[in-house]
Amino acid sequence: MDSPVPPSPSHRPTEPPAEPRVRRRDRHGRGMRGPVAPPQVPLSASRADTFRDLVLDSVERLERRWPQLADVEFMVMEVPPPVSGETVPLGGSVPAEKNEPARVVVYRRPVEIRSKSRDERALLVHEVVVEQVAELLGLSPESVDPRYGQD
Hints:
The protein is 33% helix and 9% strand. By secondary structure, it is of the alpha+beta class. A 3-stranded mixed beta sheet has the order 1-3-2. Helix 1 (47-65) packs across helix 3 (118-137).
């Protein structure tokens, strides 16, 4: 008995190539892989981003009291440049020059090493920023921020 044989793919009339299919699941059928946490969740913020936010919070606190700090450039660097001294600085400041604004630099890694918790890190960052601003302004840290050293 003869049974009809379907035509082989090579004998089919030419069809336009099909559009690529959108994959909605991975090969195990569990869904597409994505980030562990959405971007608005603190889990997805890197340590450098979190540290930068601490510095910005401290600067905002000081700018309310000292409007002239709007001209100062605040920076975060990973580590300080090599120095022959024994202590590693937590921050530094550079006064304004002809074409350059005044700068305050906070070094992230030394501050992180010296602090154990996020609250302790925030406090240390604020102290470093206050000390460097006081050095730029030629004032004592207590006059720059009356709560300096009390927290």
